[in-house]
Structures are given as C-alpha cells and as structure tokens.
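Q: I have 71 residues here and want to know how they pack in 3D. Can you give me a structure?
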Amino acid sequence: MHPVDLSRLAWRKSSYSGANGNCVEIAPARGSALIAVRDSKDQSGPALVFTAGQWSAFTTGIKDGSLDLRA
C-alpha cells in the first residue's frame, strides 16, 4: 500500500460530534479507495488508513451492534 499524504486531505467530523473534543475525523484519500481516520484532539498525530471495504465493514458493525463489546 502506498503512503497517504495526510496533510492534503479534507478532514471532517460527524455532525453528531459534541464540543467536548472526544471525536474522530475521517477523510477520503483522493485518487484511491482509502479512508483515513484520526483523533480530532491530535490532528498532527498518527492516522489509521482503511480500504473502502474495511471501512464499510467497520461502520456496518458499529451500526448493527456486532462490535458492541458491552454485550
């Protein structure tokens, strides 16, 4: 996998994010099917990079509760 230039991405937060700063930001990597995710409190810190398929599986698992560790 090729490195992603995180400085050129258009980062965004969920509209559900509150003002407390406990948020993540996501950014699609232009020209590829990659999604970058970072901690909004540490914008110069590291980011996780997922393929579109991995990101879809993750968000589906969140929505359907299969990733809920409290169960």
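Q: Anything worth noting?
A: The beta strands are 12-13, 24-29, 34-39, 47-51. Residues 61 and 67 are 5 Å apart (CA to CA).
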